[in-house]
Each structure stands twice: as structure tokens, then as C-alpha cells.
Write a structure and sequence with these properties.
Helix content: 25-40%
Largest sheet: 8 strands, mixed
Distance between the termini: 37 Å
Order of helices and strands: EEEHEHEHEHHHHEHEHHHEHEHH
Strand content: 15-25%
Number of strands: 10
Strand order of the largest sheet: 1-2-4-3-5-6-9-10
Number of helices: 14
Structural class: alpha/beta
């Protein structure tokens, strides 16, 4: 169990017209920045196990609560959460610390932001590490239409867009139950039940699998979403089609050294053609579910550190 009292104290930093709540470790390692980007519905605290290990390896570890999360700014406008703004926040964070480039690590939605940063701001990225979510190929039709045609209107990403506000209210009303049911590990394989997955999780009275973290650790997420609600973070999903248009003329090939870490028991599918778009990618699979860096912290951290060392020696 990790005591939240041991987590670094944050600093509020003005970037890109907003304020980000930023946690740091290894500030004495100036010149070797690594930026860790959380997913949905998470918090910088998701990286609690990786931060001290990366600092001990000589990195200046920078971990923001991205816009809409924690005590970071929560703009009201849905389009304030598009991919240009999310990647712009990270670039502005580098500017704040006077860094030209950094290693970027992202999990889940954070991985999508990191992949996009490498495309939109390639000169600011040294290396990419993605957990759980591989590079998402931009197809011929907008993402929500594609997902709806492939997975149906009840898929949570489609539901978030087609029925704005409905899921937000249910998740807010059942916040603690939702987070308790979501952050699990060793879940038995079951056929998906009908309906919208996130709403089902919020309403489920009995969780499946095992708790991912202690009640004390979960309280960090619980209190953060009690203060912020879920709408701001869900607005990231409401920009998927906008992002599809914004990326239309962007070079889709990422030439940076990259590491993709999958959980073999994750519901997120592995990419069958990842190296077509990320030719310098290395792939590692762990016997874990979706919440890799929290479920298998030692193994995940070890994979990241070993890869960073190997790619530095090339």
C-alpha cells in the first residue's frame, strides 16, 4: 500500500492560457526531463510507483494533472479539450522548464495525447512510451462514426458523444461506487452485458475481480472527482471527431524511438500494424489488465527503465 501523504506536493503552473497542477520528483536531475501523462478517469497519483524510480535513475520527473483533472483548470467549452490544446499544454510545460525536448510517457488517454504530441510537435519529443493504448490510425471516417458502426451506439465513447450529460450525471451520482468498480484487477472473463459499460459499472452493487488499490489510495481519485465531477474529463472524448479533422493534414508516421507496453488481459485491442505508423517501436506485453503501472508497478517500471537505458546506448 502506498500512503498518499508520501506523494509529492504540487505546484500550480501557468501554461497555454490555463493552470496545471504539476507534481515533480528528481528536480535535481535538471536536463533529463520525463513527462508522465495519466489516462481516464485518473490522476497524476496513478504514477506514484514510477516517479521515485525514474528520479533515482537520473530523470527530472514531471507529472501534470492534465486540464479538466484535479486542481488543474477546467474550461467550460468542450472544444477546450481538443488534441491541439492537450498537446499544447505539454509543450508549454516544457517551455516553462526551459526544455527543448523530453521523454513522454502516457497511459490510456494519456498515451493518445503523447502519440499526438509526437505528430503535432515532433521537434519537442525525444522518445515515446505508451501504456495500454497503441497508436490510433486515422481512418477514412470520423472516429465516433467508425466506433458506432463497429461496436454500436451503446459503446461508451459513442454514448458520451450522442447523449451528452447523461453518463456524466450518473457517474457523478455514483462516483465512489463507479471508481471502486472500475479500478479492479484479475477480473474473470465474461461476455459484455448489454447497455453502456461505464453506466453499468457506476450502478453495479457488487464489483468483480480484486481491488487495484487500497481504500486510502482510492480516496485520492475519489476526492479529486468529488471536487471536479466527470464532465471535464469526458469532454476529451467529445473531441474525438474534432481531433480527426485536426489531424487530417498531419504526417501520421512517428519516427521517434517508441515503447508500447500492453496488458495481455486488457480489453483494449493490440494494434496489428503498429510498426507501419511507428517504425522504431519496441513492444512488451505484461500479464496484466488495463491499469498496468498500478497493477504491476515493479514490472512496468522495470520495462520502462530498461528500454530507456537500451535506447540511450544505441
Amino acid at each position: 500500500m502506498y500512503d498518499p501523504a508520501d506523494f509529492p506536493k504540487p505546484t500550480m503552473i501557468s501554461v497555454n492560457g490555463i493552470e496545471l497542477e504539476v507534481f515533480e520528483c528528481g528536480q535535481n536531475n535538471v536536463g533529463r526531463p520525463i513527462v508522465l501523462c495519466h489516462g481516464w478517469p485518473e490522476h497524476a497519483f496513478s504514477w506514484r510507483f514510477q516517479m521515485p524510480a525514474l528520479a533515482a535513475a537520473g530523470y527530472h520527473v514531471i507529472v501534470p494533472n492534465q486540464r479538466g483533472y484535479g486542481n488543474s483548470s477546467r474550461p467550460k467549452d468542450v472544444t477546450a479539450y481538443d488534441i491541439e490544446q492537450l498537446t499544447g499544454d505539454l509543450v508549454a510545460l516544457l517551455d516553462h522548464f526551459a526544455y527543448e525536448t523530453a521523454v513522454f510517457v502516457g497511459h490510456d488517454w494519456g498515451a493518445n495525447v503523447v502519440w499526438s504530441t509526437a505528430m503535432l510537435h515532433p521537434d519537442r519529443v525525444e522518445k515515446v512510451v505508451a501504456l495500454s493504448l497503441p497508436y490510433q490510425q486515422r481512418g477514412k471516417i470520423p472516429w465516433i462514426d467508425f466506433i458506432e458502426g463497429f461496436l454500436g451506439s451503446d459503446h461508451y465513447m459513442v454514448h458520451f458523444n450522442r447523449r451528452p450529460g447523461v453518463a456524466d450525471a450518473i457517474l457523478d451520482e455514483n462516483r465512489h461506487q463507479f471508481l471502486t468498480n472500475l479500478f479492479r484487477k484479475n477480473e474473470p472473463k465474461m461476455a459484455p452485458e448489454p447497455g453502456m459499460m461505464m453506466i453499468n459499472l457506476a450502478r453495479a452493487k457488487v464489483p468483480v475481480g480484486e481491488p487495484l488499490m487500497s481504500d486510502l489510495e482510492l480516496s485520492v481519485f475519489d476526492s479529486a472527482f468529488e471536487a471536479s465531477g466527470f464532465t471535464n474529463s469526458i469532454n476529451w472524448y467529445r473531441n474525438l471527431d474534432r481531433n480527426w479533422h485536426l489531424l487530417e493534414k498531419v504526417n501520421p508516421i512517428i519516427q521517434h524511438p517508441a515503447l508500447m507496453i500492453y496488458g495481455d488481459r486488457d480489453l483494449v485491442p493490440k494494434s496489428p500494424n503498429l510498426s507501419d505508423f511507428v517504425p522504431k517501436v519496441d513492444v512488451v506485453c505484461l500479464d496484466a489488465g488495463h491499469w498496468l503501472q498500478q497493477e504491476m508497478p515493479v514490472e512496468t517500471t522495470g520495462v520502462i527503465l530498461n528500454w530507456l537505458k537500451q535506447t540511450s546506448e544505441v
